[in-house]
Amino acid sequence: MVSDEERTRAELRELVGDDAGVELRPMFGTLAALVDGHVFAVALGEQIGVKLGGEALAELDALPGSGVLTMGNRQMKAYRSLPAGMPSGDRRAWLDRARDHVGGQRR
């Protein structure tokens, strides 16, 4: 039987696909998506969290079902969870925004 966490990891793999420059690797006891060696998304339990800044962070935070991602006891203030039930096209768009945000910070 497949666990919820395994389903979430599979979804992250599917959403990221074969994007050039994106690496998926085990990290923090879960699966992380990285661009230029920096994490922009994680599969954590039943949630996918994305790292954003500024207006995008506030925009996702305002959506019902999104919230600050918590890893262990630590709130990851730059990460927000994607709401459950969000259509896959919208989820993919948020992953793209997170990838561009993190990749853009490093240039």
Rg over C-alpha atoms, rounded to the nearest angstrom:
13 Å
N-to-C SSE string, H for helix and E for strand: HEEEEHEEH
Shape: globular
Task: State the CATH architecture.
Answer: Alpha-Beta Complex
Number of domains: 1
Fill in the CATH topology: Aspartate Aminotransferase, domain 1
Q: Look at the structure and give the mean pLDDT.
A: 92
Say how many strands there are: 6
What is the first-to-last residue Cα distance?
43 Å
- Runs in which pLDDT lies below 50 for 5 or more consecutive residues are none
Structural class: alpha+beta
Largest sheet: 6 strands, antiparallel
In the CATH scheme, the class would be: Alpha Beta
List keywords for this structure.
107 residues, alpha+beta, Aspartate Aminotransferase, domain 1, 6-stranded antiparallel beta sheet, 6 strands, 36% helix, 34% strand, globular
Give the helices and strands, then pairings:
Elements: H1 4-16, E1 22-27, E2 30-35, E3 38-44, E4 47-51, H2 54-61, E5 68-71, E6 74-81, H3 88-105
Antiparallel strand pairs: 1-2, 2-3, 3-4, 4-6, 5-6
Could you characterize the architecture of this molecule?
This protein is an alpha+beta fold and 107 residues long. It has a single domain (4-105), classed as Aspartate Aminotransferase, domain 1 (Alpha-Beta Complex). It is 36% helix and 34% strand. The chain contains 3 helices and 6 strands. It has helices at residues 4-16, 54-61, 88-105; strands at 22-27, 30-35, 38-44, 47-51, 68-71, 74-81. A 6-stranded antiparallel beta sheet has the order 1-2-3-4-6-5. The longest helix has 18 residues, at 88-105. The radius of gyration is 13 Å and the shape is globular.
